[in-house]
Amino acid sequence: MRTRPAARAGQYAALLAYLVFLAFPFVWLASTAFKPAAELAGLHPTWIPQNPTLANFRQAFDEQPLLRAALNSLLTASAAALVAVAVATPMAYVMARHRGALARAATGWVVVSQAFPFVLLIIPLFLVLKNLRLIDSLPGLVLVHVVWSLPFALWMLTGYVRAVPAELEEAAAVDGAGRLRTLVSVTVPLLAPGIAATALFAFVTAWNEFFFALVLLKTPERQTLPVLLTRFIGAEGVADLGPLAAAAFLATLPSLLVFALIQRRITGSLLTGAVKG
């Protein structure tokens, strides 16, 4: 009993240290985005800008087409999230309700697919997109994002489907509803929170993705926001620090806002999947 307060204090200290570790890059990015050039070049950096300015934001918009790149990111991330959820929902229903060899194989695919790094996937994906004539196109990038986010979306939704009582589907079957009608009219409405969390998670993943967009998109007008940020770095590796920080700060805000909205549902989904799996 005497060690319990000390252990709890240690846990809170560790949690605080972890939160500081996570928040430090964003806080420093925000501070840099509002600093004038003179402060950025100073020998003694400060946490809080002494003379805050919006000049870095104006310069970032003047130098690069941030709005167009943001629109490309929005279109690809939204399309990828919608397609991933549309494909994963019926697959998750089958995996949750029919625990046979096919379901076990699909579960193994979900686990194994997460172990492959980007660099091993880009060559086969590039060849497939080349045969489909989707290189340097936003639809091709959407297809890649769907392939990459589908395993995790399937895992999340499978946990939600297993949390839905099977008795409700059996009652619908007694009333004469088929599998498709039961899925659409009974199961999917109960899965609404899980579908929303999965779609938003897929959206954030596609919004922040850099490697695939860098390799597959060559036309400047089609590039996404993460790729556009690299233009603030010169040929010799010297970064235009103020505009780069301002653009990166704006690009980070949507992800933070979305995660702030869905973090409880994502946590609930992970716990449900762990308990019901």
From TrEMBL:
What are the entry keywords?
Cell membrane, Membrane, Transmembrane, Transmembrane helix, Transport
InterPro entries tied to this protein:
BP-dep_ABC_trans_perm (IPR050901), MetI-like (IPR000515), MetI-like_sf (IPR035906)
Question: What membrane topology is annotated for this entry?
Answer: Multi-pass membrane protein
- Please list the residue ranges annotated as the ABC transmembrane type-1 domain: 70-262
Q: Please give the start and end residues of each transmembrane region.
A: 12-30, 74-96, 108-129, 141-161, 182-207, 241-262
Q: Which Pfam families match?
A: BPD_transp_1
Is Cytoplasm one of the keywords?
no
Q: Which family does it belong to?
A: Belongs to the binding-protein-dependent transport system permease family.
Name of the protein this chain belongs to: Carbohydrate ABC transporter permease
